[in-house]
Write a structure and sequence with these properties.
The chain is an alpha/beta fold and about 475 residues long. It is about 40% helix and about 15% strand. It has three domains: about 140 residues, Response regulator (Rossmann fold, 3-Layer(aba) Sandwich); about 230 residues, pyruvate-formate lyase- activating enzyme (Alpha-Beta Horseshoe), CATH 3.80.30; about 80 residues. Helix 2 crosses helix 3.
């Protein structure tokens, strides 16, 4: 029986982990005629459909997430029309809860909820025997998870690969799917280091993103792995999601020893509002998280990424502004996310309690809350886009440093600049070219600054233009 597993990635640089895990589980069960197919959201739908059709598989598996499920379902429907004899199977976090949503989709034969390494081989075996398995199949924890390896070969072409050293999370945040299960299954430090060394077979530089929800849930294990990665045999870049509250002096000392660029750390701050954190079940001390993030950033060798989420319970516009300002100088990248009410999470069940209105189709983004109006959230979306374009891109260091001497609050700066761009240009930010953005920054500065400061602003803008542009700066600068 021929099996095709399809992943639709966000970008060409991503190499999906889920379908590779399932492919290796199928091969371990002696179901060897397995093919992994990958595309990305920018690929033409017809080209992807041709890829799937040409496989002429008996079973097609689609890996579904909130950011690709709409496209996956459309492809599955077209594929079913072209190859009606093939079995179409859905899996992944987006289809693991509220499966009744798919009852009327006649082109879907089976849905596997939860982990699939045991359930998918069992399903294929049943089909080979001519049986009729149930439409919805509950996955069970993979007993061989800790022995599975890395799932990538030396021929991996992409630059972002994923690795699980643990499944599960010790915390129960109300917005996260990890709260739907309990317990953590982790590979030993020695096994994890053996696995990570396997990535050295990939000849080009890659970032290995560990998808563990809280990598340092066991601080001793995390420190043993970091100690091992200091070995010069490990040459890749490693991305960890860590709980800053669990970092001790030994952790800081170990992390400070890495060569610059080898380690990236992602820290979930989410909010500095104590009432908000209590409502989502997040046990942390914001001041301690920020102090740890600043210390890691100031080490000079680590790339620090901080997450905030807009739309959480009890956080109004002013509260979010305070969270933004508190986080701004504690990281290299400030990721402003917007709450998504995922099926299976406590916060989705409690949406009415918090006055949360959200999109009914994926990705279920919050539209307003009891504390935040739709207009305020729309403004935060614009501020988020501008923060990413100016700050997180790293292309405006001199200009941003100059404006910090003028406007104390980073949030106020982005807020005022967002309003200025809306008045002066009117286009959405992604439609504004880089040259025009420099001119808008110049116009903004000249509108709020005394004439004596205009020359200093132009100097900062020219310095940033020279950093990333081969052309001469506009004469207005």
């Amino acid at each position: 029986m021929k099996i095709a597993l399809f992943a639709l990635n966000a970008s060409w640089s991503h190499a999906a982990l889920s379908v590779r895990c399932l492919a290796d589980a199928l091969r371990a069960a002696d179901l060897c005629d397995v093919r992994v197919i990958e595309g990305n959201l920018r690929d033409r739908t017809r080209s992807l459909l041709e890829l799937l059709y040409n496989e002429n598989a008996d079973v097609y598996g689609f890996s579904c997430y909130i950011w690709n499920v709409t496209e996956q379902l459309a492809l599955a429907q077209s594929l079913h029309a072209l190859r009606p004899a093939a079995r179409i199977v859905l899996g992944g976090p987006e289809v693991s809860f509220a499966t009744e949503r798919y009852e009327n989709l006649t082109y879907i034969d089976h849905i596997i909820t939860g982990e699939g390494e045991v359930a998918l081989p069992a399903l294929v075996r049943a089909l080979e025997r001519g049986e009729q398995p149930p439409r919805v199949i509950a996955g069970t924890p993979d007993p061989n998870f800790t022995a599975r390896g890395i799932h990538y070969g030396a021929d991996t072409a992409q630059t972002l690969v994923y690795y699980e050293s643990a499944r599960g999370c010790p915390f129960s945040c109300a917005f996260c799917l990890s709260s739907a299960s309990s317990g953590v299954r982790a590979k030993s430090a020695a096994d994890t280091l053996d696995d990570l060394l396997e990535f050295e077979r990939i000849p080009h530089p890659v970032t290995v993103k560990l998808v563990d929800r809280t990598f340092n849930a066991s601080p001793a294990r995390a420190k043993a792995i970091w100690q091992g990665l200091l070995d010069k045999r490990y040459t890749k870049c490693y991305h960890f999601e860590v709980c800053a509250d669990l970092l001790d002096e030994e952790s800081f000392a170990l992390l400070a020893r890495f060569p610059a660029g080898k380690v990236r750390l992602e820290i979930g701050l989410q909010s500095t509002n104590a009432r908000t954190l209590a409502a989502i079940g997040r046990r942390q001390t914001p001041s301690a998280v920020l102090a740890a993030a600043k210390r890691l950033m100031q080490a000079g060798n680590l790339h620090v990424h901080l997450d905030l989420i807009a739309g959480l319970p009890h956080e109004d516009y002013a509260s979010f502004a305070r969270s933004f300002d508190a986080a701004y100088d504690a990281c290299h990248v400030l990721q402003l996310g917007f709450l998504k009410l995922l099926h299976g999470t406590r916060l989705r069940r409690d949406a009415d309690k918090h006055g949360i209105v959200f999109e009914q189709e994926p990705p279920y983004t919050v539209l307003k809350t009891a504390a935040l109006s739709f207009e305020e959230l729309s403004r935060l979306h614009a501020i988020s886009d501008l923060t990413e374009r100016l700050r997180d891109s790293g292309r405006f260091p001199h200009t941003l440093a100059f404006f910090r001497t003028v406007i104390d609050s980073p949030f106020a700066f982005y807020e005022q600049l967002t309003d200025h761009i809306a008045r002066a240009d009117g286009r959405e930010l992604h439609r504004i070219g880089q040259r025009d953005l420099f001119l808008l920054l110049s116009l903004f500065g000249k509108a709020i600054l005394p004439e004596a400061r205009h020359a200093a602003l132009s100097e900062a803008l020219r310095a940033d233009f020279a950093l990333s542009e081969a052309r001469k700066p506009p004469k207005e600068l």
